[in-house]
Amino acid sequence: MEPKDGAPLVSAAAIIEGLPDAVVAISPDERIVYVNALAEELFGYRRDELVSGPVRRLWPVRLRDTYTRNMRHYFATEHPLRFVSEVFGLRGDGTEFAGEMSWGVVGTIDGPLLLAIGRDITARQISDMRRQALAAMSERALAGADPAQLAAEAETLLRSTLPVSGAWVCPDPDVAVDATLRLPVGGAGELLLATERPLTDEETTLVHAVANILATALARLRDEERMRHDALHDPLTGLANRTLLHDRLAHAVAQAERGLGDTCVLFVDLDDFKRVNDLHGHQIGDELLATLGGRLLGAVRPADTVARMGGDEFVIVCEQIDIVGALALADRLEAAIAEPVGAGGIVHRLSASIGIALGPGAGDALLRNADAAVYRAKAAGGARIEVFSAS
Known about the structure:
Layout (H helix, E strand, L loop, with lengths): L11 H6 L4 E5 L5 E4 L1 H7 L3 H4 L13 H13 L5 E9 L5 E13 L2 E10 L1 H22 L3 H15 L2 E7 L10 E4 L5 E6 L5 H32 L9 H16 L5 E8 L2 H8 L1 H18 L5 E6 L2 E7 L3 H16 L2 E3 L2 E3 L3 E8 L3 H17 L5 E3 L4
Parallel strand pairs: 14-15
Antiparallel strand pairs: 1-2, 1-5, 3-4, 4-5, 6-8, 7-8, 9-11, 9-14, 10-11, 12-13
């Protein structure tokens, strides 16, 4: 019999073969009676290898008992059950896959059959996991997570979900790494991948998203470091500002109180620097101050702190130093300042008065004493060193 429009009737078997999912029919004796072509492809067997064989072979060993109990329950239930669940299947090569299956008992002329209709959702699960991992990484990046930890997470994510033999976040773009894909990470290195095959569009999108997240985290870190630096350093010279000076001075005093040596404060006041600004302008004056700041840093010990108090005044804080060492340091500072400085096409010759306060005591008191000593040096004509004395 044909339909009225003349189209031929389609058999039930042809309909099942045309479904977009794998179909397995199971008899009450727990044997496979039918599979379609997609089931052959999904499980990795030929049809003749599956039909009449036990259905248990399609299930992971760890789940066979559970799935067998469920199957027997389906057949024993008076009313057919039809529902969807996530299950695991076992391929012919021994690998497992995650599947989404619709189960149901149907009546046929040969008796009831359990139909399992489903598909492999491993790729979808991996895709979902990638999205969730990316969302979590993005939130952590915006919340201020350590970029090094994010980089480690990124490497793990890429290695576990992509066909790659290696994934690295490398701060040095010139490093010798056998990478087939290189993506910049915010100007702070590269994300390197050694791929085993060309990546799909979705996989490539994942890699670019990871690189963007890392770039965001590194940019945030640089911004925070810059803000911390700016909050503690003089914008003209890059030296410590008053806030950082007082912190370093408090630390030095605390060390002295533990018996680790005296604290020394050297107050440096450039001589007649106002004349430079008046004659040549503040731009030239600022250029000179920036150059002198670098020279002062080069004259002190690595652990010493050089700070700009403002204008043409500088302070050096030293730990574990005696008067001989303090005077030697003051001489080096005087020599560094006395070296001719070129600015605005003119060679400038400068000098400074330096006051020294040495010993235990409060930081503010040492600063006041060093300031008093430099005042005496100025009163004596400048370009000289004075050590504070209470007498």
